[in-house]
Amino acid sequence: MNVVVVGGGPAGLYLAIQLKRADPAHEITVFERNRPADTYGFGVVFSDATMEELTADDPETFARLRDRSHHWDDIDVHYRGEVLSSTGHGFSGMERSALLEVLAVRAAELGVILRAATEIVDPAAHLKADLVVAADGVNSTVRERWRDDFGPFVDWRPNKFVWMGTTRPFDAFTFDFQRDEHGLWRLHAYRYSEDRSTFIVETTDQTLARSGLADASEAETLAYCESLFAERLQGHRLIANRSMWRSFPTLTCARWWRENVVLLGDAAHTAHFSVGSGTKLAMEDATALAEALAKERDVPVALTAYEAERRPQVESLQRAAQASLQWFEGTERYMETEPIQFAFNLLTRSLRITHEDLKLRDPAFTAKVDRWFASEAEKQSGVPIRLDPPPPPMFTPFRLRELVLQNRVVVSAMCQYYAEDGMPNDWHFVHLGSRAVGGAGLVMAEMTDVSPQGRISPGCAGLYRDEHVEAWRRIVDFVHRWSPARIGIQLGHAGRKGSTKLAWEGDNEPLEEGGWEVLAPCPIPWSDGNPVPRAMDRADMDAVIGDHVRAAERAAAAGFDLLEVHMAHGYLLATFISPLTNVRDDEYGGSVANRMRFPLEVLDAVRAAWPAEKPLSVRISAVDWAPGGQEIEDSLEVARLLKAHDVDIVDVSAGQTVPYAKPRYGRQFQTPFSDRIRHEVAVPTMAVGNISSFMDVNTILAAGRADLCALARAHLWDPYWARNAAWRMGYPLPWPDPYSTLDRYTPRFE
Predict the structure, then answer these.
(1) Secondary element (H or E) of residue 38
(2) 244 within 8 A of 162, measured Cβ to Cβ
């Protein structure tokens, strides 16, 4: 096979090595626009896990690289005059020029032709080769030549950073956060040789502008940073190498290959430097591509297999890198948190390290986090915590007004569509009762409609008749008598998403017969096939307010402990909030404050009807996931208004406002919205959305990203989710007396 590789960085060189190792008969030429010594940056870093994986792929190459690397285990976080250290992380840093030298020598030994200082002006001139590989970085000439085929998208991030080196050899991966009169500056530093370290300084665009460094020379930037981080440098100097302030480009591509041309490494995707994975991704791409070509000689078939295998892995790491870069973009919001929580938040920012992972790496550090969190929970709830060691974060108490939850696990509200004329029955009794016995601190009943017209479907539960109260009271009484859980109810009105079939008969599909008129702020149907809603007038608004008040009074009579008003997911109140569904030109449309006017009228009336000692929650959609829709900045304003109207906790969900939304799914994909609202509005929050493991729950809580965690599908799969989590962690969560023999006879995980 004749292969042309454009780009002599780690991706291109390592691919050439792997192809030659697989088949020495391959004819491989690597073109590099720069001279061998002319490389950007100072050091690269690999985790121990990455080094082990790559060593297994190519032992000889990585034996040489290990000799040129420097290993460390610790991470030091300098914050508000304290140094918080965590060990057990395992990294190896090496000089980028040394990495390229080792790879180039190894490639040449295997017979690869290396053409340095050679610019490829027209990649199409090489199409006669069997394979053309674009390994020429984020500014790829090859990718841009066939831009329409690859569909690149670059998201230029708002923060600015400068890449420097220093003569100080740091003994740990070092983060430092320094304020001056212009704003906050972040330092990322790590050692890559015996006497050198990479030194990256990052700040917001606004802080950089105030400092006057935006157009500074290298010498001016170095002088400023040496003064700012003098304590960290300990008399050592900074070193420049094209050290100009720039923005980070997050690159994604719609596809990675066309005909016989394929993208590799940064030409196809980028991952933020704060997770140190750009070189890792590039070299893993090279291994995967070489393996695909070894298995399949037909190039398009091999490239299809390569992308199918690698894309999910890359996108997973890109999501982690995106979470990390967003953490650093918003570090200002965390600067008032306690040092131990700040450090834990930083260490777990990418979602790649959880509370449990950190416990394995550094038990002493995690124990310190747990002790601090338990102490804060004791003060917040007024409940003494006498266990030593303290409970995991998820099993600490939490207070909302006079309601004290025994733990922070919530069974999320999940529509069952099994009621008749709103009446809950034995199905609801078992569904909610079993999950209360299962150990959750709070069990939320499904969206319960305030009127027949407010139902999603004929099977939706309600509180619009006095007869409903006794049926709900039966469930509430069971929860209170037979479990320590508390139970809440979510009041809602379906709005334009009403008058539809049961979910399993056709999700959001209109009823073929027996339907009813639907309401909304504007006559915009959910979809072309759904009924056009009647635009609400003042009389309709008053009627809906009255329905909510009567439902709240019935909820109080049934004995519920918490009431939640549903303002999310495209239902009636949500359609007032979103600019996609509210285009009114009166006082109920326009600005966020105007769009919130009617939802707040409902909220105020409910708060007045609901017992003062009992907490009130509101569920919101933080973003609409659609162009022109609600964004997190809008929802920060929404949350401030909710807080001003006596809401005790904000249940932060997202999306489902319009059928054409494009959510960005992933693990804990909605938690960042909870995090921002909690810190920037200073209101308690409940996180929800693809949270399934106790490791994630403990991490979210200990990092301060939410106060409660709501799990839906996890509780459908396992009604005893909280008890099983306690068992796995060795936490003594008492069983009900009839089940207490389990504690005696069931072995615990070691």
Answers:
(1) none
(2) yes
Place of tokens 């089940």: 739
Domain 2-329 has CATH 3.90.1150.180: no
Identify the DSSP state of 173.
E
Distance of CA 232 to the CA centre of its chain: 31
Structure tokens that stand for 656 in this block = 């489902």
DSSP string covering 81-147, please? TEEEEE----EEEEEHHHHHHHHHHHHHHTT-EEETT---S-GGGGTTSSEEEE-S-TT-HHHHHTH
Enter the tokens of residue 263: 């993208």
The CA distance from 440 to 433, in Å, is 11
Number of residues written out for the chain:
750
Q: With contact defined as beta carbons under 8 Å apart, do 229 and 78 qualify?
A: no
- Number of CB atoms found within 10 A of residue 24's CB: 9
Instruction: Yes or no: say if 529 and 592 are a contact pair by the CB < 8 Å rule.
Output: no
Structure confidence at residue 747 as a pLDDT band (50, 70, 90): very low
What residues contact residue 148 under an 8 Å CB cut-off, 6+ apart? none
Query: Which residues lie across from 448 on neighbouring strands?
Result: 491
Other Cβ atoms less than 10 A from the Cβ of 423: the count is: 15
By three-state DSSP, how is residue 17 classified?
A: helix
Look-up of token digits 């999950």? 435
Q: How far apart are CA 685 and CA 124, in angstroms?
A: 54
Catalytic residue numbers? 571
CB-CB contact of 199 with 166 (8 Å): yes
pLDDT digits (tens, 9 = 90+) for 430-479: 999 999 999 999 999 999 999 999 999 999 999 999 999 999 999 999 99
Phi–psi pair at 492, nearest 5 degrees:
-150, 170
Q: Measuring CA to CA, which residue among 439, 443, 420 is closest to residue 431?
A: 443
**Contact predicate 76/84, CB 8 Å:** yes
pLDDT tops 90 at residue 122? no
Find the farthest-apart pair of alpha carbons in the chain and give their distance in angstroms, rounded.
85
Beta bridge pairs of residue 641: none
Dist CA 308 CA 650 (whole Å): 39
Report pLDDT for 407. 97
Nearest to 164, CA basis, from 205, 223, 115, 206: 223
Side-chain half-sphere CA neighbours of 375 within 13 A: 9
Number of other residues whose CB lies within 10 A of the CB of residue 671:
25
From 661, 584, 572, 672, select the one nearest 622 (Cα to Cα): 672
Q: Which of 422, 558, 399, 424 is nearest to 494 (CA)?
A: 422
Q: Are 453 and 547 in contact (CB under 8 A)?
A: no
pLDDT digits (tens, 9 = 90+) for 358-372: 999 999 999 999 999
Q: Residue 499 and residue 358: Cα distance in Å, rounded? A: 49
Q: Residue 701 corresponds to which amino acid? A: L
* Calpha distance 708→684 (Å, rounded): 8
CB 177 within 8 A of CB 186: yes
- Provide the CATH number for the domain formed by 408-745 in this structure: 3.20.20.70
Specify the domain boundaries for CATH 3.50.50.60 within the chain: 2-329
Average per-residue pLDDT for the chain: 94
Residue 198 has phi, psi (to 5 degrees) of -75, 140
Instruction: Using DSSP bridges, classify how beta strands 43-47 and 409-411 pair: parallel, antiparallel or unpaired.
Output: unpaired
- The Cα–Cα gap between 70 and 350 comes to 24
Which H/E stretch holds residue 451?
none
Pairwise CA distance, residues 551 & 742, whole Å: 41
Q: What mean pLDDT is predicted for residues 259-267?
A: 97
Q: Provide the sign of the torsion angle of the four alpha carbons 49, 696, 397, 706, taken in this order.
A: positive
- DSSP alpha helices (H): ranges in 44-95? 48-57, 59-67
Task: Write down the pTM of the prediction.
Answer: 0.93
Going by the DSSP 8-state scheme, the letter that residue 683 receives in this structure is: -
Residues of each domain in the chain carrying CATH 3.20.20.70: 408-745
